[in-house]
Design a protein that fits this description.
Layout: H1 15-24, H2 29-36, H3 40-48, H4 57-66, H5 70-74, E1 83-89, E2 92-100, E3 105-110, H6 128-137, H7 147-153, H8 161-168, E4 177-183
Antiparallel strand pairs: 1-2, 1-4, 2-3
């Protein structure tokens, strides 16, 4: 019989514990609420109420108190380049790819340590050529038989990986990865 595992998290947290964790992270109540996926009203109630907080939020807040770099690891940086691609697995963002096509520059940030879920695997600073290869890997092959019919179906005049991804989100048969494209709006 397998031995039951036990963990050192407290059974409950009090208002002061939650407020201290949030302040240690240098977050407003709204930022903290957004990060742990609750309403700001809930955070406010937790911080002002005498009733202890219990449940699945306890390990999360405890871990956040211990390692205040966790939010940084999952924060999307400000978009500097005209195009941002978010490489997704289901609804989880695995890699952010910012692209300056004109200057042929890309910048990435991975949100997972698992190479099989990253857009570029173990490569942390891909080249522009590797970016183009990645785009093409998320499209049907340019050598596909009757490719012109496929392009007509997508209303595309010629094979262009980025334009195909705009139409298909880079979705492939029988995998759950896809690409969300975000364009920077200049005021």
């Amino acid at each position: 019989m397998k031995k039951k595992r036990t963990f050192v998290f407290p059974d409950e947290l009090h208002a002061e514990d939650i407020k201290n964790a949030r302040k240690r992270l240098n977050m407003t109540q709204q930022e903290f609420a957004d990060f742990i996926c609750v309403s700001v009203k809930t955070v406010s109630k937790w911080e002002q109420n005498d009733t202890p907080v219990k449940g699945p939020v306890i390990p999360l807040i405890s871990l956040l108190f211990e390692d205040r770099t966790i939010p940084e690891k999952y924060e999307l940086p400000e978009q500097e380049y005209p195009v941002r691609l978010l490489y997704m697995y289901y609804d989880q963002c695995c890699t952010m790819i910012d692209v300056n096509e004109k200057d042929r520059i890309i910048r990435i940030k991975n949100f997972t340590a698992l190479p099989m879920y990253r857009a570029f695997g173990t490569i942390d600073q891909p080249t522009f050529a590797q970016y183009l290869d990645f785009l093409e890997s998320r499209c049907f092959p340019r050598t596909r038989d009757k490719m012109k019919l496929q392009l007509d179906e997508l209303c595309l005049p010629f094979y262009d990986s980025f334009m195909i991804i705009e139409k298909t989100q880079g979705r492939m048969a029988e995998d759950h990865f896809w690409i969300k494209i975000v364009r920077k709006h200049y005021d």
